[in-house]
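Forwarding these from the shared drive since the link keeps breaking.
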Amino acid sequence: MNVTVVVPSPVGPWGVVGDDAVISRILMPNERPRASRVTTVPAAVARGASQLGEYFAGRRRTFDLPLDETVGTEFQRAVWAALTAIPYGATATYADVARDIGRPRAARAVGGANHANPWPIVVPCHRVVATTGLGGYGGGLDAKRFLLGLERA
């Protein structure tokens, strides 16, 4: 059974969804996460909520969480793996990520994979920008600006 724990942030509440074994999703504030009514929070969810809270407090730069590896296409998983290589405080363009995964003409598809990322922040899709500016973000541009500002990118 998936359980959701809500983690507050300056841009609104985020949700960590999962069970004892894995984190299945991170919900953005615009997805209106609601905490599950449970007496015991599953281990992976508790760990995810704790690490996300540390990130928002400026005390965490990397994550060590069990993510549900059964989601996404092969292409999406390649993009998500490339995103985890973008260091805290840095950015990359969609074209950079496409080149990094050996698909230099797939910048638009990288954008689609970014949008499908089930674990924002943990898999840092907010660090991907357009060559002409900020680019988009599923959680809204204010949230993206906040996250990049938090990391001082």
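-- next protein --
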Amino acid sequence: MDEIIKQFIGEQNCASICCVDESRQPYCFSCFYAFNAEVGLLYFKSSSNSRHAALMKINPFVAGTILPDKLNKMSIKGVQLKAIVLDSKQQPVIRTLGIYLKKYPMALAMPGEIWVLQINHIKMTDNTLGFGKKIVWDRTQDLPELISG
């Protein structure tokens, strides 16, 4: 994964994620996340009985965006991503779940479960590198695939 993308995602805290409901209509939610740059995973905590949790259990394919925590209109940066929800009981995932709790230790006191998104595609806009500059990354380029999909 491009170092600029890794740095940007690692510096932010909140993502907007979109899943699809039973009528194939989009349903979006926002979440605080932690990022594992080594394997391209995003972690977030949510109630297992939330609307988006129910939808992700039916269809694990999601899309999302990450914008800077502090938006600078003169130097636009942002990420669009495609991902798949992983089973948090898979061995490669279990070994890395502590990343979320390290970033948000107060999450231990909150009910809910940690969800894991395997990022498979990213398009980043970074106008600090030139107006309209895009950096595209795809999992098939350089990270091992954790699951089929």
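The CA atoms of residues 3 and 37 lie 9 Å apart. Strands lie at 14-20, 26-36, 41-46, 61-66, 77-86, 113-126, 134-138.

- D.
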